[in-house]
Amino acid sequence: MLDINLIRDNPAIVKKDLEKRHQLDKLLWVEEIRRMDGEWKNLKQQVDELRHFRNKISQEIADVKKKGGDASKLKKQAAEVPTMILQKEGLQKELERQVNHYLMNLPNILHDSVPVGEGEEGNKLVKLFGKKPAFKHALKSHVDLLQDFQLADMERAAKISGARFWFLTGDLARLDLALQHYAVDFMVKRGFTLVQPPFMMNRSAYEGVTDLRDFEDVMYKIDQEDLYLIATSEHPLTAMFQNEILDEARLPMKMVGISTNFRKEAGAHGKDTKGIFRGHQFNKIEQIIICKPEDSWKFHEELIKNAIDFFISLGLHLRQINICTGDIGTVAAKKYDLEVWYPAQNAYREVVSCSNCTDYQARRLKIRYTAKDEQGKDVKIAVHTLNATCVATSRALVAILENFQEKDGSVSVPKILQPYIGGMKKIGRKKKEGHPMI
């Protein structure tokens, strides 16, 4: 959420940002917040004055009694004060609730380097990496390869779980594990601490890390429980520090999360309905950094470089995209995507999302650290939070199947992954009759 002081002192910054995001309907919110905040300040002053009056009249009653006088009128006045304070405090709390509602639903302030645009067509290419593969033979889709070599069973998964689920089998299941193992090793070598999170979070924690209006339709809610299945390990790894004041010496905190994630994929009807590119359940290795405000833009570049280096190490061609103002989400101040080339689809597809959320999540979650101000006094400062995919394994598997397929349909294993899959150099084998597991 935004800092109320920003709206108090620099409302023009917030309004300009909303215009860049093409969220003109929220411009009136800024003035409404300022109006309610003014009322809140006025009520606070009245409450302070009433408390001062209560203290003063209590002293006067004591003085009158000490002199043997009649303090009944003063007592009557004093008796009315607590009720007046409670009434005004109630109005204050209601105004506070309304202001917080608006603050929670205003988007983060964008970095100046975010390109202005209305939708994904406004996203800007930053850089290309690697070379597009050239093939002398016709390419098969990953869906055909899955079927030809019985690397996944979609039909039986649909029978017991519904559409967009799958069983990975044999070599492909091993390759999925190899990607996870390699990604963890890759990130640990770069100074990140491995964390395995719980796969469920309560609503309070979820409202801290994301705008539920953007995300709630994507998430699975546990029936009759205050719990949601996680959509990414970014969420629990950030929310785990909710309501904490961190030691400055602990910053930056660099974590790599490994988890299975669950998404309804609402709004994705008709997209990638076949195969394993887009599903309701998938494995992902995620990068998280929690740091001081002055360090976050440096770390944003570090996170995207980690992801670029990871996919280059697999031998894939990709491009880095700077997401524009009309396509970026509520929480991020700046976001990069990485898109890998999928030759059988003749298209770039997103594999990495990398965001600097500045202090937006931290204010919602009340995550701060203690530092010294210029006078040497302790002050509480909201941390900055950043996240980036290292690899979502199902999308990487599809990229490997498409980019490394041989003329006979078998698929070469990227060299870097071969030690993680028992030295195997190729996956794929001739289809056998009978059970697909055999």
Features:
438 residues, alpha+beta, Helix Hairpins, BirA Bifunctional Protein, domain 2, 2 domains, 8-stranded mixed β-sheet, 3-stranded mixed β-sheet, 13 helices, 20% strand
Summarize the model shown.
This protein folds into two domains: 4-105, Serine-tRNA synthetase, tRNA binding domain (Helix Hairpins), CATH 1.10.287.40; 120-427, 2-Layer Sandwich (BirA Bifunctional Protein, domain 2). 40% of the residues lie in helices and 20% in strands.
Describe this structure in words.
This protein is of the alpha+beta class and 438 residues long. It has two domains: 4-105, Helix Hairpins, CATH 1.10.287.40; 120-427, 2-Layer Sandwich (BirA Bifunctional Protein, domain 2), CATH 3.30.930.10. It has 13 helices and 17 strands. The protein has helices at residues 4-9, 11-20, 27-66, 72-105, 142-148, 154-161, 170-188, 203-209, 212-215, 234-239, 296-313, 360-365, 393-403, and strands at 124-129, 152-153, 167-168, 193-195, 200-201, 228-229, 245-246, 253-262, 281-291, 318-322, 334-342, 347-356, 368-372, 378-382, 384-392, 411-412, 426-427. The mean pLDDT is 92.
